[in-house]
Design goal:
Chains A, B: InterPro entries: NUDIX_hydrolase-like_dom_sf, NUDIX_hydrolase_dom, WH-like_DNA-bd_sf, WH_DNA-bd_sf, WHD_NrtR. The structure is a homodimer. The first copy, chain A, is an alpha+beta fold and about 230 residues long. Chain A has helices spanning about 60-70, 110-115, 135-150, 165-175, 185-190, 220-225; strands at about 15-25, 30-35, 45-50, 50-55, 80-85, 95-105, 120-125, 165, 195-205, 210-215. The first copy, chain A, binds a DNA duplex (27 and 27 nucleotides) through helix 5.
DNA sequence: ACAAAAGTGTTTCTAATACACCCATGG
DNA sequence: CCATGGGTGTATTAGAAACACTTTTGT
């Protein structure tokens, strides 16, 4: 394949561009990270984020989504660029610039069989082992990013199932910010934003009484944004 | 030069990595952008951000600082990665991923002669012409970024001279957020943060009475950060 | 003496925080 | 009937926003 007729920049240096993905999940009150064993030389076999080289005729995000689907079976996942990591000799294999992404997935929905087959594992975020290159830094940076971002964008909902309870949502925020939140104030604030729809169903799995399920209403949220209102939780 | 002994990834695709810099300045109450005429084919001669290809043995930020110095004479400038722009066929010259940066410079300090010699110009931010590739998008994104960032980091001071007055600072925030701010509330808030040092000097250039000059105290700011306090202006 | 920008205080209102009890249910 | 997590209301406090006049000084 020859996507470009002519190379206008032939006197400049070419290098590899890769993308690595910090994949977050949320389960049983804990933030989790999906990592796997590196499949290419050098450093083959060490723990690593999921990543890939970017092909000449492929967008960076496309590449990231490709590997994410390959390993989890998931498509249409929330994913956003974090930043690039590409100091000169970071990668002993050759000059490679990695564009890190972070993704938020609903941990109940991924393809377990696929994940296992690729040697991938979910790790508690507090508990991540040493990763290849500066992937630990990427994780750290990604966590800071979602902490900041979750204050003004409703990204938390990307980690929960479609239907969730208020206590679940609270546990998520508690895990992200690593601190306890007063449940009365939390509920008050979340509901006052008016972006949740209460359903007639209850989740009976965590208490005898059951907790009402809610859905995030994207349309209401967009209206809220338009009106200049400031979305802010926790 | 041959910075790498061996290329482990030879079966993958190599491409160009560039960096473009959204350079902001602040003058006479207006946010300004430094742009210049593109010096390489294709699209030579069209308005463009200042940028460069990244060399094999050069960090991305290094490359950005190199061109910034080349054109403005400035070093030690505030610069931060914005995000990457690298869709497949965005650059007709060849597949190129650009890592956009934004820089904040003190507009009084750059080397005017150098800037002119490179055909660079300061444009009012409201008034930027059509730029090459998706550089207009980069400018837009950078502006959004500094708007968000200025709420919790003291980046505004990077755009002002070492010594500045409160009214000047206010005008800067007014330009960034494009709205008027009540001067009493602004002054109260800024001073309550306790990161400014009042000097014994006055700036007499804008009024008969003169306005006291202040300096931003980075040490006080760091202490503020440590104490978990939330820096927030405007 | 006046024009023009710098500087100063108080009141009002809104939103964050702190805090304790009742509810519903399955076992 | 009781243990467990779900759900509700109020008082206090802190900070944001609104608002108008006095000061200084070169001309």
């Amino acid at each position: 394949m020859k996507p470009f007729q002519k190379d206008f920049y032939i006197q400049e240096d070419k290098m590899y561009v890769a993308t690595d993905c910090v994949i977050f999940g949320f389960d049983e009150g804990n933030l989790k990270l999906l990592i796997f064993k590196r499949r290419v030389k050098p450093l083959m076999g060490t723990w690593s984020l999921i990543g890939s080289f970017v092909k000449l005729d492929e967008d960076v995000k496309e590449a990231a989504k490709r590997v994410l689907k390959e390993i989890t079976g998931l498509e249409n996942v929330f994913m956003e660029e974090l930043k690039t990591y590409g100091t000169t000799f970071r990668d002993p294999g050759y000059r490679t610039i990695s564009i890190a992404q972070y993704a938020l997935i609903r941990i109940g929905e991924y393809d377990k069989e696929l994940v296992e087959r690729h040697g991938a594992h979910w790790y508690d975020i507090e508990d991540v082992p040493d990763l290849v290159l500066e992937h630990n830094q990427m994780v750290k940076d990604a966590l800071l990013r979602i902490r900041r971002k979750a204050r003004y964008k409703p990204i938390g909902f990307e980690l929960l199932p479609e239907k969730f309870t208020i206590p679940q949502l609270q546990k998520l925020y508690e895990a992200v910010y690593h601190k306890e939140i007063d449940s009365r104030n939390f509920r008050k604030k979340v509901l006052s934003l008016n972006v949740l729809v209460k359903l007639d169903e209850k989740d009976m799995s965590t208490s005898r009484r059951g907790a009402f399920l809610y859905k995030f209403d994207r349309k209401k949220y967009l209206k809220l944004q338009e009106s200049g209102f400031n979305f802010e939780i926790a």
